[in-house]
Design goal:
24% helix, 24% strand, 212 residues, 5 helices, nine-stranded mixed beta sheet, globular
C-alpha cells in the first residue's frame, strides 16, 4: 500500500517537459522542512491505495506523462515498485525528489529530477551528495534560488560535483521572493548552461491552490 495525498491531471510546470499535460501522483510524507515549502499539506494525512488502484486511476486521464512527487516520495519504500510498474505499463515516468535519500534503486526508465537544497531552504545540510554518482546523464538537477548566496552555492555545487554537460540543470526563483529577472541576469553573467524555469503552473492558476 502507498499513502497518497492526491492524484491529479494538470500542466507540467517545470523542467524539460514544462507545458505538457501530466498526471501527478503526490505521495504523503516528507523528511525535510524547507523554508519556502508550498506543499506542506502533503506532510500528513492522505489515504492508503494499492499500487494497482493508483495505476488504474492514472489510466483514467489518458495521459502518457506521469510525475511522482510529494512531500518526499522516496520516504515510502513502495514508491520504488510503483515507479517500475508505471514504466512497465508504458508511461513516461518522472520522479521529483529532494535529494536527501538515495536514488540508486530508482528504475532506470524513470527520469529523476533532483532538487539540491540551497542555504535559504535551511535544509542544505540534508543534501546527499552521493546521489550525483547515482544519477544518469539525462537526469535533471534543480536549484531553487532565494538570494545571491543560494546562487553562489549552486555554482559551487556544479563546479565540484557536476561534469559539464552531464545533467540538465534547472534554476528556479523562490516564488514571490526574488524577481525572475534577477536570476536571469545572474545566469547570463555566470556563463553556465542552465535552464531558467518559472513554475508555469503558478502563473496559470492561483499559486496557493492545492493540487497544482
Amino acid at each position: 500500500m502507498v499513502r497518497i495525498t492526491e492524484i491529479f491531471h494538470s500542466i507540467q510546470g517545470e523542467g524539460s517537459r514544462a507545458g505538457l499535460p501530466c498526471v501527478f501522483i503526490r505521495l504523503t510524507g516528507c523528511n525535510l522542512r524547507c523554508s519556502y515549502c508550498d506543499t506542506a499539506y502533503a506532510f500528513h494525512g492522505g489515504a492508503e491505495m494499492s499500487r494497482k488502484e493508483i495505476i488504474e486511476k492514472v489510466k483514467v486521464y489518458n495521459c502518457h506523462l506521469v510525475e511522482i512527487t510529494g512531500g518526499e516520495p522516496l520516504t515510502q519504500q513502495e514508491c520504488f515498485p510503483l515507479m517500475k510498474e508505471l514504466a512497465d505499463e508504458g508511461f513516461d515516468v518522472m520522479l521529483e525528489t529532494g535529494g536527501s535519500i538515495s536514488v540508486a534503486d530508482v528504475d532506470s526508465r524513470v527520469k529523476i529530477i533532483m532538487d539540491v537544497k540551497c542555504p535559504s531552504s535551511r535544509m542544505d545540510h540534508k543534501n546527499r551528495l552521493e546521489n550525483f554518482n547515482e544519477l544518469r546523464k539525462d537526469d535533471e538537477v534543480k536549484f531553487v534560488i532565494g538570494d545571491r548566496t543560494d546562487f553562489d552555492f549552486a555554482l559551487d555545487i556544479i563546479k565540484d560535483y557536476i561534469p559539464k554537460g552531464k545533467f540538465v540543470l534547472l534554476f528556479s526563483p523562490v516564488f514571490g521572493k526574488i524577481k525572475p529577472v534577477a536570476l536571469a541576469e545572474w545566469l547570463l553573467e555566470s556563463g553556465i548552461q542552465a535552464r531558467l524555469q518559472l513554475q508555469l503552473h503558478k502563473y496559470i492558476w492561483d499559486p496557493e491552490r492545492k493540487g497544482v
